[in-house]
Amino acid sequence: MKNWHIDTLAVQAGYEPKNGEPRIVPIAQSTTFKYDTAGAIADLFDLKAAGHMYSRISNPTVAVFEDKIAAMEGGVGALAVSSGQAASTISVINICQAGDHFIALATLYGGTFNLFKHSMKKWGIEVTFVDPAASPEEIKAAFKDNTKLIFGESLSNPGTDVLDFEKFVAIKNEMGVPLIVDNTFPTPILCRPIELGADIVTHSTTKYIDGHATSVGGIIIDSGNFDWTNGKFPGLTEPDDSYHGLSYTETFGKAAYIVKARVQWIRDIGCYQTPQNAFLSNLGLETLHLRMERHSENALRLAEFLDGHDKVEWVKYPMLPADSNYALCKKYLSAGSGVLTFGVKGSAQDAEKIMNSLQLAAIVVHVADVRTGVLHPASMTHRQLSSEDLEKAGITPQLIRVSVGIEKIDDIIADFKQALAQL
Ligand SMILES: *Cc1c(COP(=O)(O)O)cnc(C)c1O
Fold first, then answer.
1. Which residue owns the Cα nearest ligand 1 atom 1?
2. What residues bear N6-(pyridoxal phosphate)lysine in this entry (predicted)?
3. Which domain holds residue 342?
4. Where are the alpha helices (DSSP H) in 358-394?
5. pLDDT tens per residue, range 63-92
């Protein structure tokens, strides 16, 4: 995609209508695609030709969304799936099977944490969670012979911890495994993990990418940079019996990982994104650069207000100069994104009282859309975690997560001011 700036890619990439075609990408609401000969379809099944055949595996509308994100993240290809959870799942099982092990940061989103710790264990895949602040030596000590990857979030949900790219990229290079980065919170507008050394990027597109809370979705982007032929990834190099002995690295080169994820896992599990959701998520992408700017500006202003409030014990937002993540945020992100957490002086009940008193900010099990919302992770998104795991993830009973919207900041601050006054 031409040498455009990311703001232009957000608006233009992925779809180039020809003479007389619709200016806006049409919703290809069709499960299937017509070909003139049986042989043409046989070639598609054998992966000898590219083309759409069935919307469980690919679809023209979803392809536009995939191509746009691949361009924005700087990858060789992308695969859109039905949720962020599906993206995390496929990104791991594409290179990890029963008997394998991987490393994940302890600060992951609660849903991902459960998936890795409990569900993957039932499939025979073992995970070790590491403290993101641990030394390289401690992290390397968690590796085993069968360790296949490292998984982390560029900006963690809900703790807003920034990934130390330099440290983790050095470790994954030394250990010969890929680094998978969930880039949901910063989006490619604020952080581009591939430029920072990540090999695979995932998103819950449900969040800022859609941005309007209309569509659950996820996406996986392949940098094309990892060498899968280093002996650790036979699933990519050895013959795949379900495609007459085809080897993904031999046939698809740099795109081996992302092609395999689609033609093997999406074919078999069937969690592809729907054309309708891809259309809406693509519409969201068109304004992502504008929204991320405003979300970040508003969140910083609200963080500063809360920081100076006498009923607030602490505020965590990576663009506050006193924040423990400030240096990393300055280094890797161009702004702080729209999520902050704070602790009220008092108990979980006091946190609940503030939430119930808010009038503009709604209590929602969602984050990262245009409307300001609040959530109490300890009793909601992270309630399945043990108290020990909650502590490791930095989630206290007083913690309120705020997803700062793009309303006028004066109205958002006034709302928190009146709610805090009721304590
Ligand atoms: C929400 C979220 C997910 C899960 O995405 P869904 O679309 O809800 O399945 C994964 N990672 C992060 C960082 C998230 O915020």
1. 204
2. 207
3. 289-420
4. 387-392
5. 999 999 999 999 999 999 999 999 999 999
